[in-house]
Every structure is written in structure tokens, then in C-alpha cells.
Design a protein that fits this description.
With 362 residues, the chain is of the alpha/beta class. It folds into 2 domains: 5-79, GMP Synthetase, Chain A, domain 3; 96-344, Rossmann fold (3-Layer(aba) Sandwich), CATH 3.40.50. Helix content is 32%, strand content 20%. The protein has helices at 5-12, 54-66, 111-124, 141-144, 187-200, 219-227, 241-256, 287-295, 307-314, 319-322, 327-344; strands at 30-36, 39-46, 72-79, 96-103, 129-133, 162-164, 167-171, 206-212, 232-237, 261-266, 271-272, 279-280, 299-302. The strands form 3 sheets. An 8-stranded mixed sheet has the order 6-7-5-8-4-9-10-13, sandwiched between helices. The chain has a 3-stranded mixed sheet with strand order 1-2-3, with helices on one face. Strands 11-12 form a two-stranded antiparallel ribbon. Helix 3 packs across helix 11 (327-344) and helix 5 (187-200) crosses helix 6 (219-227).
Amino acid sequence: MAVTEQAVRDALAQVIDPNTGRDLISDKSVKTVRVQADRVAVDIELGYPGRSQFEGLRRQATESLQRIGVNAADIAVSSRIASHVVQRGVNLVSGVKNIIAVASGKGGVGKSTTAVNLALALAAEGASVGMLDADIYGPSQPTMLGITGRPESKQENTMEPMMGHGIQASSIGFLIPSSDSPMVWRGPMVTQALEQLLRQTRWRDLDYLVVDLPPGTGDIQLTLSQRVPVTGAVIVTTPQDIALLDARKGLKMFEKVNIPILGLVENMSMHVCSQCGHAEPIFGAGGAQKMSQDYGVELLGQLPLDIRIREQADSGTPTVVADPDGAIAQTYRTIARRVAVKIADMDRDMTARFPKIVVQNT
């Protein structure tokens, strides 16, 4: 009995994508099905970067098709990242599909380290990624990405992004004379600098631009919400009560300006002694989990208090690059996929499909 296209689709409806929790058919991930006798070719396209997931999905799909008598299956799995909606009335950024803001209520919770590892994890999963260091007073991304030198300017009032570990980057740290030069600027100068870094950098076809925000809910955050097309925000916190209190303020700020919260990341959730292996939640336990339940947002992942994370970031080779197969890097990659899946589930930005209508007096 010949295999039909409908039988193939019914078989693929039994394949569950572990990242979305939905089957390939209802998720509209199956783009084409070609049947010739007992040979089948299928194109599967994910809406999020998931290079590490391709082989597992290909294997699941092949096994499901074998159960209905398909002897030869050519399963192609790929990703395609779309642009998604942002705040109304905000101009889009050329060369950037989606902007992810990484924020914290207070300093010292590992926000910048999380931001750079998130960006590198998205890139490791196959996305084109950029990093914007919006922490004007304390730019740390040049050090974390191991980038030295100054950006080129090939056109007037523009600059080329610097490259570090395969991602594009822009930071005020690239423009100041030395790493210990203080930025003694008032609020309007800081917000103007942010806009210039964002819009005068010639980003090249980015699926995601990760923005490392300064801590708090001040001028930079307000400018971001009013003038920068943000797809969603990730809140970084630690388990201790004072950090969670400030993280709640940051979360509420994004809610007030209608920027979706993609989820929470809990840093320093558990300390594991490098000598004896004893694990202890020295900053408390369960705080981010309770916060996620209180506000109905996802806890994307929990990261340990581990000296290697600090050492690797300080040396210019963050964990995802320094130890790509390690447990901590895998946690960052899981967080990155969860963030990307949340974005993929949002409404798409369709403005580019509509022609521009210009009304002129003649």
C-alpha cells in the first residue's frame, strides 16, 4: 500500500518538539512534504534557532515515518527567524529583526554576564546575533567579548560593529580613551549616546540584538521603552530578597510600558564548593520561582555561583565559548532557546510587507 501525503502528515503530528511542547503539524513547522512511492522528503522549519535540536527532531521524524512503512526518508531541518511586533509608534532599527533587553533591578546580580552568554548561546544555536552595551557608565562587554581597538567608520555618522566570538557588538567602551575613563555625563547625554550607538551602528542582518541595560529603572530604561523597538525583556536576579524586590520593580516597569517579559533568569542560585562539592543556596532558595508564579512569567533557568563563570567572562571568553559542552553552557543554551521560542510565539511584524504610501500636493 502506497504511502500518502496525508499519512505522512498524520505521522509527523505525533512528533513533539521538546522546546515548544507542540507537534510539528499544529506548530506549522512542516513546510513541504513530497511523496514518491515509499520515499518521502520533508522540510521542517523552526521559528527559533535550534541547531543542537536538529538531529533529535530529524531522528524522531524518521522513526515516526518508518512506522507507517516509509523505507527512505529525507528529513531537512532548518530555522528561520522572523521579525516580531514591538511598541507602537517606535521606528524599527535597520538590519535588526528582534531586540531583547536584558535588565535587572540592581547591580551585582550578573546581568552583563547573562546578557553576553545569552547572545553567544543564540549564536551557537545558529542565529545571527548582535550585542549592544547600553550600560553607558559601566561598559563591560568589550572586556567580556575580548574586543580591543576602535570601530571603523565607512560612512559619515555611522560606525561598523566590532566582532567578538562571531557576534556583532557596539559599546561606548569602544569609543572612550581607556577602560578606566569615567563617563561623567548627565541623563540627556546618556540617552543620546544610547540612541546613537543603536541607530548609527551598521548592524548586518541580525536575527536578535541583545541589549545589556544598566541596573535600575532610570533614563536609559525610559529611553529604551519610548524610542527603541524592543521585542521583549529578560529580567536577571539572584535569590536574595533585596535583589528580588528590585527585580520586581524592573518587571513592573516593563509591564507599564507594554514591553513583554520573556522570563526570569536566577543567577547564583546554588554555590557548589570547588574543593568538596558541597552545594548550598547561600543567597536563599525559591525566590525567583515564587516571583515567576506571582507575576505569571516563566523562570527560564537557574545558574550556579561558580568561579568559572566569573573567570571566563573576565578573560574575554565567556562560558558558552570557553566550555561549550559543559553543564553551565548547556543551561545558557536552554535559556536562549526558551527566549527564542517565546519570541517566535509572538505576533509577527508585517509592516515590511506593506507598501509605503506617500501623499504629495501636486
